[in-house]
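Reply to dn_fold:

You asked what the input looked like. This is it:
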Amino acid sequence: MNRIKSNIDFSYFVNQKIKSILVDDNRPLTVYFPNGRLIAECSWRISSKQGILYGSSDVVELGLEKLKKLLEKKTVANIHHYMHVSDLVIEFNDQTYLELFHNSSYYEGWELIGEAGFHIVSLPGGSYSEF
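and this is what came back:
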């Protein structure tokens, strides 16, 4: 598969630090930034050069505290969006990554919202829309 990056300008989120994280059985992973938020209703994982550190299926077994420890206060270095299936990778300043895998042909996968009108949604089947 040829993964082609989109031309979306994510510079709005660069240098923003994660403020807080919410996730539980009744709500998707929600990551709050000072000027925006990410809502992930698809599969996701946190990785680094050591491999997979935590994944969406680990919440029940490993709990929210480990997730918070891995992500809170991390600073966004870059964001990569791949058009073919609308996967999103948030790269942090310590070379840790939050990777979102859109995994549905029927449901939306994730939503990234910023103040000042930035809004992108991964749509069913892997397409995306900017508002």
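The mean pLDDT is 93.
Hope that clears it up.
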